[in-house]
Amino acid sequence: MTKFSRAARHFALLLPLLYLAPQASAQQSAQAQGVQTAAEAGTEAAALSSLPAPKAVQIGSETPWIYEGSDVPRDTEWLFGEMDNGLRYATRENGVPPGQVSIRIRIDAGSLHEEDSERGFAHLLEHMSFRESKYLAQGAAIPTWQRLGASFGSDTNAETTPTHTVYKLDLPAATPASVEESFKLLAGMMQEPVLSEENLALDVPIVLAEMRERSGASIRAFEKSLQTRFAGQRLANRLTIGTRETLNGATAESISAFHDRWYRPENVVISVAGDFEAETFASLIEKYFGDWEGKGPLTPAPDFGDPVAPAGADPDNPVGEVAVIVEPDLPRSMTYTVMRPWRPVQDTIVYNEGLLMDALAQALINRRLEARARAGGSYLYAQVRQEDVSRSTDSTFVAFAPLTGDWQSALKDVRGVIEDALAAAPSEEEIAREFAEFEKIYESQVEQRTVMQGSKLADDIINAVDIREAVAAPETVLQVFRGMRERITPERILERTRALFEGDVIRTTYITPAADEATDAAVRAAMLQEVAPNSDVRLAAETLLFADLPPIGEPGTIVSTGPLGVLGIERIEFDNGTRALLWPNDGEPGRVSVKMRFGAGMRAFDQEDAPYISLGESALVGQGFGELGQEELDRISTGRVMGFDFAVEDAVFSFSAQTRNADLADQLYLFAGKLAMPRWDANPVNRMKAAQRLSYESYAANAGGILTRDLEYYLRNEDARFKTFTPTEVDTTTPERFREVWAPLLTQGDVEVIIFGDFERDAAVEALRNTVGALPQRTPIPAEIASRVPTFPAAGEGTKIITHRGDATSAAAVVAWPSGAGVEQLRESRQLEILTDLFNNRLLDAMRERAGASYSPSVNASWPVDLDAGGRIMALAQLKPEDVPVFFAASDAIARDLAVNPPTADELARVTEPLKQLVTRIMTSNQFWLYQIEGSSKDRRKLLYLQTLLSDYSQTTPERMQELAQKYFANRPAYRLAILPDGQELAGGGAARAAEITGR
């Protein structure tokens, strides 16, 4: 019997409230609403209960296939099986979120399994499997699962990597019928896709569009890095996207041959986690995949090759291939890789203890590297990371970004830190610090085991299979980690550190925007030089305690307390004006969500101070407060579950964190301390200035980069507060002016604190009294600032054209209409989500599925709640320059048609059912309710619309959609933005082709 999870308990109590909304129009059929009668549900359940018991399960003394050769304790919540045809599976009952079933089908074939003439076939086949198959007509996969409540892209998707192809389905509100139907459809996709010339002609342009969207300087640098790093190995020239030549050369016969060679049960693992019994999933797998037989003899995987040092290399310093990659539009970055052959391992406890010690060794080095960067080092960031890459190499990567063209100093700095770690063991105090950090993570995983998402659990099995390792329950990981503490000595960590930097070959790539900055020979010579250890970065490990810090002020006095009126949330107000909303609940065990809102947000800044907005988002928290700088903040939170995210929102600033009951009081102290006693350190500001300078030029590398850089600026009517500033403009900023801008903003506006989750109410109230309740009285937000709202570009200005420096085949286009904002029409904003999803489905069908012009066109709506203006509806796509007019015409045609003709009931159901299921699932999250409730301690209007929340997103009429389309699309022309390659102009036409592909 399906059981409610703990995460769903409070949600179950909300259902009566949320369904007090008006019922759907009679025009919406029961099928479109997803309504199921009791008789129908009983019939379906009976059908599943009549399934034969699974025969291939591995129970009792039989070792499950994933644990063969391993002494890792079995995670008994999984049911494993291996069928006679070689297909393996793992299934598990899981009710997070309630009613969802997550299915993953892994094919042990990716781009490394392709021959030279087949490059890109694994990924192309992924697309074609969705196009048409045994039980799904051409183009029917997306609408079929939309009718079952699964959205395309998030709930229904696939991925291709060098080593595998994985098909993913997260089926919400699963019924016995929809679960069985999904297994049947997926089985047809895997075993009998329709690989015809007609379908090839439809899918190849989509894959080429995806390739085009990824094109530019970044992909060129990535490809050259692969060729250098994996020289002599198959991975060196196996991008998953393939090549234009091989994709255009694909035939029905060649793609079918690839399918027959690799899509066979011996190469398949299926993992399922969801709100049915594990045995039921196993029975369905055996029913629909049990008679699958491979065609011809089993083909072994090709040899991926080993990294090999060049002849004559020094065994003690085996520097191999080096590549200086010049890309004027990319920031500087250097990576050197110590490479060893990858070999399958016996996934034992001893092996995992070694991995954990490796992780500790890397954490020690990375903390020292970060300390060096913070103190004004010659690099922006640096990191050491061990990774087994695509079953091709066991590598240790050292990556860093030089601040200037003096890459030699940056390389010397980074290597000096690493050489010190290789020369002498760390202190016991350093080890204890990192051990506490890891232990905190593993403890949290145990605490939150009951709310582990089924989708993640299903992914965990797939990832374990990919790296040829087992899976372990969180309790096992924590037990193993704690059990090895006495064996984690400085000497053992030194030994593991040295092993991480020993290898058969070292390969180096340096990406630079300057052609004369470096040569391959110069980089090779620098890598061959000996570097002295730098012990200055060894960090003091003395303990800092919150108890030793000064108080925020006199503890506050509660002036009012009482129920907010929904969900059992309590509202508390202190004598300094601070308000708090508290909701203790056990929906997410061991987890507490905290958010503090204050000030005026984006409204607070004058145009001339706009460069300090993004600097503040990046550097404000890092400056610390009082006597606590960046290093001290890290140290005082060691072994704790604490966070400190900062955001500049439309109308407020916010601090937010995920913490736990034991750390809540200190988390609140961190937030309050930043307002009460801010610290102004120049280093974080200068570091972020350097980061902005380094990244700016990369925006111009392709159309997508220009969208990231300029879209908000132009849609906000060229308001400087939404601008990405040039390096020259960034250079005009100073730490002194940073303080002048931000210091008064930290004192302005009411403070609201929201605490939702697993905490003790009385202890939280006392913590609030001593922290935010103890803050001094706040300065009111000036009326001039409070009245500021963003504006939308005026109508009728023609198409705004900006250019990029990337590939001549890359362009992008945007159309946008102003919508609304504020609380009063909040219900209308939810209905607009339905309208934009209708628009999105039509645009996806027109520009991707029919025309193959764009890989991922999208439509979305925004509706600021804390402002009275600034909302919009926007459609965008990346495409060829010649297809920009087609996109504009297609978007106009869709907008006009929505305003003239109501959508059909089925088209509406394909949108409302996924939206209904999405909202239903995220309602189990404290974060969701925090977002819905925030601000209501002062403005209670948001609460008025909670009871209609679910129905507003999932119930409507065709006539209502037409009415909204007329209101927002028909009353003014859309704003148009085109991003074209340098030297190109916007061509005319497009209407005829748009009419052809939209059918309008």
Automatic annotation (TrEMBL):
Domain of life per record: Bacteria
MF annotations from Gene Ontology: metal ion binding; metallopeptidase activity
Pfam families in the cross-refs: Peptidase_M16, Peptidase_M16_C
Alphabetical UniProt keywords: Hydrolase, Metalloprotease, Protease, Signal, Zinc
GO biological process, one term: proteolysis
Occurrences of domain Peptidase M16 C-terminal (ranges): 251-433, 734-911
Signal peptide: 1-26
Domain called Peptidase M16 N-terminal: residue spans: 100-237
Database matches in PANTHER family: NARDILYSIN, ZINC PROTEASE PQQL-LIKE
Family to which the UniProt record says this protein belongs: Belongs to the peptidase M16 family.
UniProt-recorded name of the protein: Insulinase family protein
